[in-house]
Design brief:
This protein is α/β, with parallel strands linked by helices and 380 residues long. Helix content is 47%, strand content 16%. The chain has 17 helices and 13 strands. It has helices spanning 5-8, 20-34, 51-59, 77-95, 107-118, 141-151, 160-168, 182-190, 200-208, 227-242, 256-266, 280-289, 298-303, 321-326, 336-348, 350-358, 368-378, and strands at residues 11-17, 39-45, 66-67, 99-103, 122-126, 154-157, 176-178, 213-218, 246-251, 272-275, 292-295, 311-313, 329-331. It has a seven-stranded parallel beta sheet with strand order 3-2-1-4-5-6-7, sandwiched between helices. Strand 8, helix 10 and strand 9 form a beta-alpha-beta unit. Helix 2 packs parallel to helix 3 and helix 4 crosses helix 5.
């Protein structure tokens, strides 16, 4: 008796991404699907970001099956969209996957979903349902994620808030699954207790200051340039004078506007270590060594709670309200008094500190990728 073709044909899953943040969030998904015997998993990258993408592929040991290698200096959004649409269409015609998985809100994500739709291939959208409600903020991401949502068959929402955003837009509840965010899976696979930093400078600082509490700081947002940043750094300077058992490590954004203000306020300050921007692996391991984090980054608001690190967010708004509700982050704005107050409280009030560091991460438990794989296979 011979088996029919259908019985032995593997279910074909293609995972597509193009930038460093997508690669970090998709790496654990790739790993899970590669382990499933009845699945043929392929990876396609557009390389919308080249160097930063390659770093993550190397870290997670992922070798793409297809690489569009699109990165060109000075290309417009229209260039990227049309190149991804054409390039991915050719791959889909040739490979015919059963489902295409995309992540988040990049131009790669939207154009790939559209290419899959044109070939009548099912689309699964990971990290579905994030919204600010403002078409131009973030631009073009808000529209990329909305357009991708319209083309999606299986919506993998990180939280209940994201699910409700989709329901509000009329998405069928039977197609939405709350899975947590795969960024937590990636984080927990990357943080090591005995991690040694390649930068001997940083390793030396950590050993020298090992009896002190580390404040990890990152600021890069355009809306904080200039005076807001000056106020944040001034508050930090005051804290260093008041608390002698504290030191600061600050991976500085490359932008000269940021660096100028940092150097003016903190350049000569003792116990402040200004370093170059870091790759993903050392950076999350540095987060794990921090006492608290002062930042305007979105990703850190998702990651730090899994490491038990309170985050003071130097912004007036966040598209991650779940973190504020859960008590893992606190919005302190950007003026001197409120930033100073936030830092003072966390450094001196142990009850408050313990409450924030013990709060449960609303973005997931580290098993999002496995949940996504099970849902995909149950919906074949």
């Amino acid at each position: 008796m011979h088996m029919t073709q259908d019985k032995i044909r593997k279910y074909k899953v293609m995972i597509v991404f193009g930038t460093r943040p997508e690669a970090i969030k998709m790496a654990p998904v790739v790993k899970v699907f590669q382990e499933i015997p009845e699945v043929e998993c392929k990876v396609a990258v557009t390389a919308q970001h080249r160097e930063m993408l390659d770093q993550v592929l190397a870290l997670f040991q992922i070798i793409p099956d297809y690489d569009l290698d699109l990165m060109k200096h000075g290309q417009t959004l229209a260039d990227i969209t049309s190149k991804v649409l054409t390039g991915m269409s050719e791959i889909f015609v040739q490979d015919r996957p059963d489902i295409v998985l995309v992540q988040g809100d990049t131009t790669t994500t939207f154009a790939t979903a559209l290419a899959a739709f044109y070939q009548k291939i099912k689309v699964g959208h990971i990290e579905a349902g994030l919204r600010t409600g403002d078409k131009y903020s973030p631009w073009p991401e808000e529209i990329n994620r909305k357009l991708t949502g319209v083309l999606t068959d299986l919506h993998f929402a990180p939280t209940e808030v994201s699910k409700n955003n989709l329901l509000h837009e009329g998405v069928l509840s039977s197609t939405i699954y709350v899975t947590g965010n795969t960024v937590i899976d990636a984080l927990l696979a990357t943080v090591k207790e005995d991690f040694i930093f390649e930068s001997s400078e940083l390793q030396t600082v950590l050993e020298k200051e090992r009896d002190k509490r580390l404040i990890l700081m990152t600021t890069h947002r355009r809306e904080n340039w200039g005076e807001p940043m000056r106020q944040i750094y001034q508050a930090l300077k005051t804290v260093l004078e008041e608390f002698e058992d504290v030191y600061v490590v600050f991976p500085m954004h490359k932008n000269p506007m940021v660096r100028q203000v940092v150097n003016e306020v903190l350049g000569e300050q003792e116990r402040v270590y200004l370093i170059e921007p870091m790759d993903y692996e050392p950076f999350v391991n540095l987060q794990a060594k921090a006492y608290l984090i002062l930042s305007d980054s979105g990703g850190i608001q998702e990651e730090a709670p899994s490491l038990g690190k309170p985050v003071l967010v130097v912004r007036d708004t966040t598209e991650r309200p779940e973190a504020v509700s859960a008590g893992t982050v606190e919005l302190v704005g950007t003026n001197y008094d409120s930033v100073l107050q936030g830092l003072r409280t966390l450094l001196s009030d142990m009850q408050r500190y313990n409450r924030m560091s013990a709060a449960v991460n609303p973005f997931g438990d580290g098993y999002a990728s496995q949940k996504i794989a099970e849902i995909v296979l149950n919906n074949k």
